[in-house]
Amino acid sequence: MDKRKKLSWDDILNQSSDPKPLDRVESSEVHLNSVVRLISPAEEVAGKSPPTRSSSPEEWSHLIERVRSAATRVREVETEAHEQELRVQDLLERVREDIANANERVKAAEAHTREIQTRADALLKAADERVRAAEERARIAEEWLARVYDTIASEFAFAQPEKRSV
């Protein structure tokens, strides 16, 4: 015979909170009393025993009301948890978008930096070439100036003017 069918309602409600594995009854009725006890206020539970088969309809009504209240609270908590999960997912999505945007900005900045570096390298190379060309022109100009000086000095023998006395 099934273990649940052998136990009466009173036996189920009076079971210890941590039954042995072999004595465990797998029904929602066993766990319902624990849920109701956890959710109901302490002052309502104190001094009252769970309803039995011989309990009055008012006690059963009170238990049903407590179960409904507990179920309402569970639904509220589930709704709040779902809303919070949606907010967290929205926040995560925004963070992912922000990270993606930041990565794109980093890539763009790196590309811009590479472009600037390439331009700077080209400008430095052109400046070096202009410096070399200017140095070469200055060297050639100095050579021509030296030739002109030598030619003038050799072609015109300047006589030293005599000193006049007054």
TrEMBL record:
Residues 74-119 form a coiled coil. Keywords: Coiled coil. It comes from the Bacteria. This is Uncharacterized protein. Residues 1-26, 42-61 are annotated as: Disordered.
